[in-house]
Design goal:
The chain has a single domain (3-299), classed as Arginase, Chain A (3-Layer(aba) Sandwich). It is an alpha/beta fold. The longest helix is centred in the first third of the chain and has 24 residues, at 85-108. 48% of the residues are buried. 43% of the residues lie in helices and 12% in strands. Strands 2-1-3-8-7-4-5-6 form an eight-stranded parallel sheet, sandwiched between helices. Helix 1 (24-35) packs across helix 10 (281-299), helix 5 crosses helix 6 (134-146) and helix 9 runs parallel beside helix 10 (281-299). Strand 4 (151-155), helix 7 (162-167) and strand 5 (174-181) form a beta-alpha-beta unit.
Length: 300
């Protein structure tokens, strides 16, 4: 059975006019339930993450500053969020959502988190709407607690997974692959194990050709035990922060390629949602919902 992490905490309210669309965390599960792609039995509500696994990849001093609301004004600005106890609580539950989804993936082949994909968080700082890095926490958990040999991070958000790349720069048991806009945030890119930097307005055909060339090669070369897939939908041409040129069908084909690769190779995969900032919320919801539709089609 497909198991999906979701909590009402995911839709924590932000000030009116904030450009991060928190409402998608309510609307995606509503859409999936309405159309029958998922039922209530598919969802699980994560608890707060065990701090042991957070501080295994994040500096303990930084985690304490977060918990005690002691970030400086500049540190808060870097995250893009107005800091609050409720926001930190939300983040702790999102981290556990990805860890639990990874556990379910080991059991069922795939597990998913309605939130997550917080790839801009570094070991000792947050930025770009990310306070803690669920990809890093889940990958480390799989290696340290489950004995996995190699985790492949496939990060297809439009923005480079800079925090994840930096956190695993000296850890060969995690291979970081980021395919992102060359001229998009972050201005300073970290070095992933494989970076594919794309020109503005890259279209479906070019994008899918590149992914189709590199992903099978990585599967052969790295032989991963597990894939963590950051499937942000800010690659869409309609995205306000994206600058790439993918259509909804192209974004869906991207997801199909990654999920089918995991299925054919019998490698468990955990999907975390990442970004999506299209002007019309329906475009964001449709693109995210396609990932879940494909998960049911391919794995179940």
């Amino acid at each position: 059975m497909l198991k999906v992490a979701w909590s009402s905490l995911y839709a924590h309210p932000l000030p009116t006019g904030h450009r991060f669309p928190m409402e998608k965390y309510e609307l995606v599960p509503e859409q999936l339930l309405y159309e029958g792609t998922l039922s209530a039995a598919n969802f699980f509500e994560p608890e707060k993450a065990d701090e042991q696994w957070i501080t295994a990849v994040h500096a303990a001093a930084y985690v304490e500053k977060l918990k005690n609301q002691q970030l400086t004004a500049s540190e808060v600005r870097r995250t893009g969020f107005p800091l609050s106890p409720a926001l930190v609580e939300r983040e702790m539950h999102i981290m556990q959502g990805s860890v639990m989804a990874a556990r379910y993936a080991l059991e069922f082949g795939i597990g998913m988190n309605i939130a997550g994909g917080t790839h801009h968080a570094f070991a000792d700082k947050g930025e770009g709407f990310c306070l803690l890095n669920d990809i890093a926490i889940a990958a480390n958990y799989l290696i340290a607690a489950k004995g996995l040999r190699k985790v492949l991070v496939v990060d297809l958000d439009v923005h480079q997974g800079n925090g994840t790349a930096a956190m695993f720069a000296s850890r060969p048991e995690v291979f970081t692959f980021s395919m992102h806009g060359a001229h998009n945030y972050p201005l300073h890119k970290e070095t992933s194990d494989l970076d594919l930097a794309l020109k503005d307005r890259t279209n479906d055909a070019t994008y899918l050709k590149l992914l189709g060339e590199h992903l099978p090669r990585l599967m052969d070369a790295e032989a991963p035990d597990f894939i963590i897939y950051q499937c942000g939908v800010d690659v869409l041409a309609t995205d306000k922060l994206g600058r790439l040129g993918l259509s909804l069908s192209g974004c869906k084909e991207r997801d199909r390629m990654v999920l089918q690769t995991a299925r054919v190779n019998e490698v468990p995969i955990m999907c975390c949602m990442g970004g999506g900032y299209s002007e019309a919320i329906r475009d964001i919801i449709e693109a995210h919902a396609n990932t879940y539709r494909l998960a049911q089609e391919i794995f179940f």
